[in-house]
Amino acid sequence: MAPASLLTIVGIGPGDPALLTLEARAALAGAPEVWLRTSRHPTVPALPPGPRYHSFDDVYDTGASFDDVYATIVARVLQAAAGAPGAVYAVPGHPLFGEATVRALLDRAPAAGIDVRIVAGISFLDDVAARLGLDPLQDGLLVLDALSLVGRSRLLVPQRPAIIAQVYDARAASHAKLALLEVYPPAHAVRVVAGASVLDTTVERMDRDATFDHLTTLYVPPLARTDDVRSFEGLRAVVAQLRAPVGGCPWDLEQTHQTLKRYLLEEAYEALDALDGGEPKRMAEELGDLLMQVLLHAQVAEDNGEFVIEDVIGAIAEKLIRRHPHVFGETEVSGAQEVLRNWETLKQAERGDAPLLDAVPKAMPALAQAQSVQSRAAKAGLAPAPATPATLERALAGAIARATSAEALGDLLFGIVELAREHEIDAEEALRLAVRRFRAHVESAERAR
Hints:
The structure is a single chain. By secondary structure, this protein is an alpha/beta fold. The protein folds into five domains: 5-122, Cobalt-precorrin-4 Transmethylase, domain 1; 126-223, 2-Layer Sandwich (Methyltransferase, Cobalt-precorrin-4 Transmethylase, Domain 2), CATH 3.30.950.10; 232-291, MazG-like (Helix Hairpins), CATH 1.10.287.1080; 308-352; 364-448, Orthogonal Bundle (Helix Hairpins), CATH 1.10.287. The protein contains 19 helices and ten strands. Strands 3-2-4-1-5 form a five-stranded parallel beta sheet, with helices on both faces. Strand 8 and strand 9 form a beta hairpin. The longest helix is centred in the middle third of the chain and has 24 residues, at 280-303. The radius of gyration is 33 Å and the shape is elongated. The protein starts with a strand and ends with a helix.
């Protein structure tokens, strides 16, 4: 069996020629030829003499996209490494820090019968941390690629310091800026590390104050917990501060699950009202109020040693995965109706021997509760007799005859709910719409006076 070819991948450091390691220098000096990902690097003029140096700058100049550029480089390096005595490929920084071509080479080399040796270099992260006095482990440093932020600002964690690497030109800087503005205030301080200089600027001004190239790195200090107002963790910190024994709010500190009950219901109704009104801005505000109630209950529970918000999130995430096997498993469905049938089957399995109607909250509004219990009973083959014009007429006559009887009026309402359910009409919604029409009529009449 023929021995495998060898590809040596060398890291040439972040830019200062003095940071080229002895191992890297020896690996380069002993090679007849060296392939440079780019010759546009401050260390290149100081590389050991002797080898013939080639670069892929022409690929960068003519490639339609980075994906095309990287694919071409990888193909050429593998071709060079396939022959004797193999090949040496040199990249900026450390080969395993943000080097897309190296990841692709590591993936493809085994199938081509090529062994890979990594010669470590000083990474851009080592250099930036030394310049800015950062301890990546102690500071919980987040390291991101500028390209990864395009349309994905959720990768940012504002309460942690962040390094954004490969801000290679003004366009990449603008994309990074737009992502940052989604979660940071415009005046939030940032530091641009480019070559030997460190520039202090702000998120808003970064793409105007600094120049960028393939060696530029951006440092974003963390936001204070209560300044991080656009993230879930920031909101959680605000709610926690409200209930802090020192520096908290006396009213919030007095609240319990029981005292907060009515606010949970009120906020749910206000969110529903905003939804009915077709007011997206108000709906966002009301959903925020509702979310605040969830977080407040979770904080009360955490303070009492009952549960934490992660238990709330974990419970619903696990339930959603469990009840959607057609999304997260191998189950196949023909459409929405089969999804609903599977959902009910899974709910029944989870419920076990518990009574059928235990899952219907007794605190629900009576109209919605009536429709829910009827629907569940119908699915179990226990539905009440179908509502017909004749049965509704008798119920109406009984309610009129016994005008003071809540029971007779209740039977009539229950029959109307059954009629709505049979025709797949949400009785609660139908009545809400009728009330809205009546309110509009009264308001119009008042204006006409």
